[in-house]
Amino acid sequence: MRLVVVSNRVSAPNREGKAGVGGLAVALRAALRERGGVWFGWSGRVSEAPAELPHIVQRGRVGYAVVDITPLDRDEYYLGFANRALWPNMHYRLGLTQFSRAEFAGYMRVNRRFAAALAAIIEPDDLIWVHDYHLIPFAAELRRLGIQNRIGYFHHIPWPPIDVFGALPGAGDLLTALAAYDLVGVHTERDAGNLARSFAEPVGGMPVPAAPRIIALPIGIDTAAFRAAAQHADANSVVQRMISGLGDRPLVIGVDRLDYSKGIVERLEAFERFLVANPDRRGNVTLLQIAPPSRSEVPEYEQVGRQTDETLGRINSSLGDTGWMPIRFVKRSYTRPVLAGLFRNAAVGLVTPMRDGMNLVAKEYVAAQRPDDPGVLVLSRFAGAAEQMREALIVNPFDKFEVAEAIGTALAMPKDERIARWRVLYEGLCRHDIGWWTQSFLDALTASAPLAALPRFS
Ligand code: ADP
Ligand code: F6P
């Protein structure tokens, strides 16, 4: 059976092997590399009169089929409903949610147009796997066109409790659309519970359809490939330059898209707190925060960019010295080998989102470590990864005192304990890697067996 993957962001590999920034692009590339298939979605381009049919490019075993969208589509569908309404709502940020009926209509319209474009190239046996919140209505639109193939959906961001989700105008329509899928996947048991409960009570007076089959299946990374990249990274000149610039100071690292859900401002403040509480550490430790801009045309993202710059400037000017800056902040993306090398040389990985579907950076940090001298992962309890990665130092990112203490604990942790924690985490990453995740979802999608009989992560 041919696999057809559908996602808003399609990331064809470029010549430098630079990955698209964002967990979904990184993960789907790994999944399709193993199995081959077609990857359909937005080209990333905006044009006044986009072609109706996809533009198909074959690269190795993967065919990339992409379509452009109009400037209005981008404003209403991508910058609008998807990223100003759905994203904040699903990250539990009711105060940031901006809803407009025109944007909701634009979201539905683009889903309809994408479905029509895919319907033109679909074959009867294709297995269709749709990804992420931009495309919730996609299957319902395909069904309207008479497509009867099996269609699965994976939701890569959190699914909030009904009191939060139900506040989103259009919530009832989204649930109705979701019911058109044969299987819906989320990363955690918590999200699966919230989603199942969303189908159990009427939303905004609207009758709710029967729930689709729901599976909690935490996404993994290409553990072996990332580890291999890390092992070879010491020879990489970018990594060498970066590491030699640190001198003997231990490195604390954070890597995230510049997104308010990632808790970057709060993380900088926690690091400041750590330095204030531990004056002996001043001059002796560096935080490297890598945060490429993301969705910067969305006002709430522009605002977090400004807040980040202000916080960074304040901390570096108040605590820095002529020969030492507490925080190095870099706003660009790096190749996977460079990232792997930086993770490998960092004594602490700080992954402290305020809320996150999974967070692949947490997994990449662990995969990159040296088995005989690993670093320590400090992980937000609100990242989906925390449901699996219990041997990390789990923190509440809303409490900067707690995060500051965890940084101190991580830097002082004896080697035996670091090794013991790392081993358990690493074994989990090997067992539940991207191949396991892809296969488990596709098995569940093709099987008619009850989900209880299918593989689970714990
Ligand atoms: P999200 O999907 O919300 O962006 P994840 O942590 O799940 O969050 O995934 C982010 C992915 O993007 C990871 O694979 C990470 O390595 C990659 N990434 C993030 N920042 C960079 C960067 N500056 N350069 C290269 N890759 C990056
Ligand atoms: O699941 C995280 C996610 O929202 C993906 O859907 C998305 O591709 C990625 O983050 C990066 O965001 P964007 O595609 O808006 O640049």
TrEMBL record:
<comment type="similarity">
    <text>Belongs to the glycosyltransferase 20 family.</text>
</comment>
<dbReference type="Pfam" id="PF00982">
    <property type="entry name" value="Glyco_transf_20"/>
</dbReference>
<protein>
    <submittedName>
        <fullName>Alpha,alpha-trehalose-phosphate synthase (UDP-forming)</fullName>
    </submittedName>
</protein>
<dbReference type="GO" id="GO:0003825">
    <property type="term" value="F:alpha,alpha-trehalose-phosphate synthase (UDP-forming) activity"/>
</dbReference>
<dbReference type="GO" id="GO:0005992">
    <property type="term" value="P:trehalose biosynthetic process"/>
</dbReference>
<dbReference type="InterPro" id="IPR001830">
    <property type="entry name" value="Glyco_trans_20"/>
</dbReference>
